[in-house]
Specification:
The chain is α/β, with parallel strands linked by helices. Helices cover 41% and strands 14% of the residues. It folds into 2 domains: 120 residues, NusB-like (N-utilizing Substance Protein B Homolog, Chain A); 197 residues, 3-Layer(aba) Sandwich (Rossmann fold). The chain has 16 helices and 11 strands. Strands 4, 5, 6, 7, 8, 9, 10 and 11 form an 8-stranded mixed sheet that branches. A 3-stranded antiparallel sheet has the order 2-1-3, sandwiched between helices. Helix 1 packs across helix 2 and helix 1 crosses helix 3.
Length: 410
């Protein structure tokens, strides 16, 4: 019997959900094993889109499911998992209800299939809709407190694609060639779904993919003028590329062989030169001190929730505490490697104060306040001269990731 079109994608999406919610894997980590039997590009893309939308809207999807069942299903029950995907396909990807049923119910058998059919039919007949913005898991909403509503409003859609230009002076030229919009010199935003490798400028290395917020740390270090900079935890290399393009002599250190390979590939494509080093920053010792150090520290990555909604469900107090301990150790070492008068820039793509504000309050260097003139229009530094961004900011222009950035002088 022929399988309904799209069934393989649903099976893959179910495996992705299981990997994230039961095993705590990232979607990126789970993709290879979960989708290895799916050869067609569109099916893979659909599986990832379904899993992403189910995770992005899971609080609200679960509320719909619970409204149509007498007894709440366990959080990890397979019928609940399948219903999340069915509802995400219907309410987020505009899949007709009959196609949702045809591709969703074969994932179940027996009583669970009848249950899922009944719940979905009830909800579809009611003409249910999702709210304007996704609900956040209770623990996340509690952690983010008064920022929760604004952040949630920035999570309604997957983000568009930000490009960082090798030559900021050519922003107008590349904006026209790429058919995008620019929110600051050296930045162009193009619609999501764009085939990156087919865009003008890719082959010649005129730009690289990097979220607008992630472009800011390197910019806040200014022109290098041939001075030496250590880019700690550098891979996959977006900040290294920007620093080299702005005149720094960069040592790019990272512990991951795979990610350092990506950095080297990016250097080759763009024609930029840096000195990659594979090492553990907690063990490595430099041969000399540096004029500047950029520490984009390993973190919970909760600031990337609009593009990686799995972090909303994987990350909790334990992971945040572990990352904060690692960040504190890295900061302590980095401060020792600065020349007198040198600059340390600390950044994390995290929404958690334990990884941002609490970290920098312990840094025994002189704060170097970020000025409003250094930032894109619509962003403002804090009274302390730090920068905190979140996905609810610049929403009218497509938003940006959550970041914390602070700058210091030795």
């Amino acid at each position: 019997m022929a399988q309904p079109p799209g069934l393989f994608a649903r099976r893959g999406a179910l495996k992705l959900l299981d990997a994230v919610l039961r095993r705590g894997e990232t979607l990126e980590q789970a993709e290879h094993a979960a989708l290895r039997d799916i050869r067609k590009g569109p099916d893979k893309a659909l599986a990832v889109a379904l899993a992403n939308e189910a995770l992005r809207w899971m609080v609200d999807l679960d509320a719909l499911i619970d409204s149509a069942t007498k007894n709440p299903l366990p959080e990890d029950a397979k019928p609940r998992m399948v219903l999340r995907l069915m509802l995400a396909g219907w309410l987020r990807l505009d899949t007709p209800p009959h196609a949702v049923i045809a591709t969703g119910l074969p994932l179940l058998s027996g009583g669970p299939r009848r249950l899922a059919h009944g719940v979905f039919s009830t909800l579809s007949k009611r003409g249910m809709r999702l709210p304007d913005a996704p609900g956040l898991p209770a623990e996340v909403a509690l952690r983010w407190a008064d920022r929760s509503a604004a952040v949630a409003a920035g999570l309604t859609q997957p983000p568009e694609v930000d490009l960082a230009l090798k030559d900021p002076a050519a922003t107008d030229e590349w904006q026209a060639k790429l058919g995008g919009v620019s929110l600051m010199p050296g930045h162009v935003r193009v619609p999501r779904g764009t085939a990156i490798e087919q865009l003008p400028g890719y082959a010649e290395g005129a730009w690289w993919v990097q979220d607008l917020a992630a472009q800011l740390p390197a910019r806040l270090l200014g022109a290098g003028e041939g001075k030496h900079l250590l880019d700690l935890c550098a891979a996959p290399g977006g900040k290294t590329l920007a620093l080299v393009a702005n005149g720094w002599k960069v040592t790019a250190l990272d512990i991951s062989k795979r990610r350092l390979g990506m950095l080297k590939d990016n250097l080759k494509r763009t024609g930029l030169k840096a000195s990659p080093v594979r090492a553990d920053a907690l063990q490595w010792e430099p041969k000399h001190q540096y004029d500047a150090i950029l520490l984009d520290a390993p973190c919970s990555a909760t600031g990337t929730c609009r593009r990686h909604p799995d972090v909303l469900h994987r990350i909790g107090a334990r992971q945040i505490a572990e990352m904060a301990d690692l960040q504190a150790a890295l900061v302590m070492r980095a401060c020792q490697w600065l020349k007198p008068g040198g600059t340390l820039l600390y950044a994390v793509c995290s929404m958690e104060p334990e990884e941002g504000e609490a970290q920098v309050q312990r840094i025994a260097l002189t704060p170097s306040a970020i000025a409003p003139s250094e930032l894109p229009s619509g962003l403002e530094p804090s009274p302390q001269g730090w920068l905190r961004t979140d996905p609810g900011m610049l929403a009218e222009s497509g938003g940006l990731d959550g970041f914390f950035i602070a700058r210091f002088t030795a």
